What does this fold into?
Amino acid sequence: MADKKKAGAFDIRIVIAALIGIYGVVLTILGIVEKQQEIDKAAGININLWGGIAMLVFTALFVLWARLRPIAVPVEEDAAGE
It folds into this structure.
């Protein structure tokens, strides 16, 4: 029976979470330093701040999902090792 190894950093969910997390941090920072004049253009909603926070929550959920249910990759044994 082949042993199983976790995908680790090569899990696509971690890569997606990292990209969305970077965008989330940037949007959150932009939302914090946004001028009121720009917020008024969006009907008084600081969309950068709320969008950034939503992306960070999404990132946390993706990382949690990847940690709780890791992808198991079967490890094949060498023919010479048998």
